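Q: Hi! First time doing this. I have a protein sequence and I read that you can turn it into a structure. Is that right? Here it is:
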Amino acid sequence: MYKIIASDLDGTLLTPDHKIAPFTKDVLNQLHQQEKDFVFATGRHHVDVAGMREQLGIPAYMITSNGARVHNCQNEVIFKQDVQPDVIRDIIALTKHDPALRIHMYRNDDWLLNKEDEALRDFHDTFTYKVFDVENPPVEGVAKIFFTNDDRDHDKLVIWEDKLNALCGDRANIAFSTPWCLEVMDANVSKGHALEAVAKAKGYTLADCIAFGDGMNDAEMLSMAGKGLVMETAHEKVKKALPNNDVIGSCADEAVAHYLVAHCLTEKA
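A: Yes, that's right. Below is the predicted 3D structure, encoded as structure tokens:
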């Protein structure tokens, strides 16, 4: 029986309106009562996720910024790996001239964006962005850089994925979290390696972990965990990358919670 449950958020644990639904909350609380450990494993910022953890009401580790930050149940940072300053400078210099591209950074406790985007202010309940100057970008304390575009065009971001891989080489880990969000972390960062660190801290191994996800930024975690489940709505790239992993339902149907009821709860919810 698995001791640690790790889940991505958007497209996985959260409903399409980016909420933890009551049934899911109840299941996770029951698992906590049965001494199972829950881990948020997301590309989101730790400030954003801390608010969700408070709503959930159970102690939980937080893997955020795709593994660039790990916080324990007391909200202490137990792992931190920033994007290197030279990588940041190179990336900003390459991308700043595309007017359709939104350049985001998670830096320490802040979410930074290169230009105003009012639509994004509705995406998070209590966490919003500040605008930064692309001519003088911050280069210290940056957990990740990520990119979106005006028309949510995946194919255009794939072109940027190729350009960034050519630019960064082995200096960065570049992956899509959703088809319209391209993310850049330090080369040594992934959710999978962060989950391994959490498991060791709690006296377990990756074999004791079950994980859920839907993005290419989940691929390492889903392949490294003892059991990795792919969402039915995941991009085809994810399913092709993990052909031997079981596929479950949709976040709209709370498929993660239903799977946990069927396979991880000692008594059914």
